[in-house]
């Protein structure tokens, strides 16, 4: 028998739930906070805070009303075959934008300079000249906060 309380369920193999528990229990004392897989049988999970949950994760949570994705990218979440028809919120903060911007910069320069050829497990025969990058430019095909920062 559900206890009538809203239950927040946390799942992430990469994130520590402790700061989330502390913050949410302070702001929402009426809600129960559980970390997957430790969920009481009577819990009525209404909110899931997740990062890359396994396939089938959402199936048992029939009272789910909101999913909070712990990262900017929701691609892996949207591939879930049991994703319920509820609102999905993704986190976005200045630290995440800076991290994504530096990652994109790294990836573009790595590609433009053929760094993968130097990292190959089998060295290439002969010498190899690194591409010079005068006037390197790239297009950003998005209008979100992360892509605005990357474009600058």
Strand order of the largest sheet: 2-1-3-4-5
CATH superfamily of the largest domain: NAD(P)-binding Rossmann-like Domain
Top CATH class of the largest domain: Alpha Beta
What oligomerization state is this entry in? single chain
Structural class: alpha/beta
Order of helices and strands: EHEEEHEHHH
CATH fold label of the largest domain: Rossmann fold
Describe the structure.
With 152 residues, this protein is α/β, with parallel strands linked by helices. The chain folds into 2 domains: 7-90, 3-Layer(aba) Sandwich (Rossmann fold); 92-121. Helix content is 30%, strand content 16%. It has helices spanning 17-27, 75-78, 94-112, 115-119, 145-151; strands spanning 7-12, 32-35, 45-51, 66-69, 88-90. The chain has a 5-stranded parallel beta sheet with strand order 2-1-3-4-5, covered by helices on one side. Strand 1, helix 1 (17-27) and strand 2 form a beta-alpha-beta unit. It is elongated. The N and C termini lie far apart (54 Å).
Give a quick summary of the entry.
The protein is α/β, with parallel strands linked by helices and 152 residues long. Helices cover 30% and strands 16% of the residues. It has two domains: 7-90, Rossmann fold, CATH 3.40.50; 92-121.
